[in-house]
């Protein structure tokens, strides 16, 4: 079992997951189906939030109580969350430029942007994974265990699984093929990357879930499961080829929500913690005395194996087809690719 979901609160925890998953699917549909929807989600809202974030930190520096006690200021101080929010939003804007052929979105060279922004997002997470591995080693030398307290007052347990998953993330970047195979859908609702088929999506989802399980353990029920399954669900059923756009949209929108309402995950009836916290709770004021990191190690190995297999499969196909897998599309015989291309202009 991955999470502690049992007892009287289990119904609320399951309801919370269903609400997040459903809202992410619907929010993605709102953002992708029209220019206005995209502009509101990735233009207007981020600008308003940026003003809000700046106001919080300026007022906190001036000693104002409302800012010092603000949930965003207290609970969402990590560099990672801001980097992820703005990197994901930048991806959404770039994808809209490609989809609607705005400005440089018309050019051939800009088609490589989706690869670059996804690679940057993966590297941000890889650095965070490695940081946790290093902090865990430092804690082991100083305290005799691997627990370390993050800047957001969450106890993390850093170990070899962080290094294994970080390597899986690096390999995942190499599993993105057909960098220039970017298209607009005929109905202008989607930016399509047809060569990003189920092979990459499964490898990515496993790696990213393990990343959240390692480094965002108190959030991973939502940002690990619901957030990853929402774009995969849409891609599987009605939006073939649009997975990366779905992923960017849902990630950016979730980061906006979580940055403003962190207690939804951290301290509410919807909160869920993983089995890592063997004491059954996570209190920043109390150093954990029991730990169960088994699933961190198991999932890290699975994620690494999935990415090794995916990359090996890509290399094999590239050799058979005598193609550069990054300049050319290599999954053209797969049904998912063909369905996506039937939607392209």
UniProtKB/TrEMBL annotation:
InterPro entries on file: DUF5692
* Cross-referenced Pfam families: DUF5692
Presence of the UniProt keyword Membrane in the record? yes
Q: Does the keyword Ligase apply?
A: no
The residues that cross the membrane are 12-31, 38-64, 79-98, 160-179, 219-239, 251-277, 297-315
**What keywords tag this UniProt record?**
Membrane, Transmembrane, Transmembrane helix
Mind telling me what this protein is named?
Uncharacterized protein
């Amino acid at each position: 079992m991955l999470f502690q979901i049992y007892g009287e609160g289990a119904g609320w925890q399951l309801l919370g997951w269903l609400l997040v998953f459903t809202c992410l699917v619907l929010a993605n549909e709102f953002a992708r189906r029209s220019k206005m929807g995209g502009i509101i989600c990735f233009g207007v809202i981020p600008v308003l939030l940026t003003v809000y974030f700046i106001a919080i930190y300026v007022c906190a520096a001036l000693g104002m109580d409302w800012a010092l006690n603000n949930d965003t200021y207290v609970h969402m101080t990590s560099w990672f969350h801001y980097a992820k929010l703005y990197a994901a939003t930048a991806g959404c804007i770039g994808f809209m430029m490609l989809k609607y052929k705005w400005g440089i979105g018309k050019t051939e060279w800009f088609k490589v942007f989706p690869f670059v922004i996804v690679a940057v997002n993966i590297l941000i997470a890889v650095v965070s994974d490695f940081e946790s591995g290093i902090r865990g080693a430092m804690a082991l030398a100083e305290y005799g265990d691997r627990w370390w307290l993050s800047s957001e007052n969450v106890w993390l347990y850093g170990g070899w699984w962080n290094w294994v998953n970080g390597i899986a993330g690096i390999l995942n970047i190499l599993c993105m093929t057909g960098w220039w195979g970017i298209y607009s859908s005929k109905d202008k609702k989607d930016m399509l990357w047809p060569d990003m088929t189920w092979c990459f999506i499964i490898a990515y989802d496993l790696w990213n879930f393990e990343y959240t399980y390692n480094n965002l353990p108190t959030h991973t029920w939502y940002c690990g499961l619901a957030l990853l399954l929402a774009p995969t669900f849409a891609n599987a059923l009605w939006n073939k080829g649009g997975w990366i756009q779905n992923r960017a949209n849902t990630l950016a929108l979730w980061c906006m929500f979580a940055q403003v309402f962190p207690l939804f995950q951290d301290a509410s009836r919807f909160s869920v913690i993983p089995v890592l916290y063997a004491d059954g709770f996570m209190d920043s004021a109390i150093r954990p005395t029991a730990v169960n990191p088994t699933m961190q190690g198991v999932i890290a190995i699975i994620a690494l194996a999935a990415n090794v297999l995916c990359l090996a499969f890509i290399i094999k196909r590239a050799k058979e087809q005598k193609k550069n897998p990054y300049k050319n599309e290599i999954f053209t015989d797969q049904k998912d690719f063909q369905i996506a291309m039937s939607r392209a202009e």
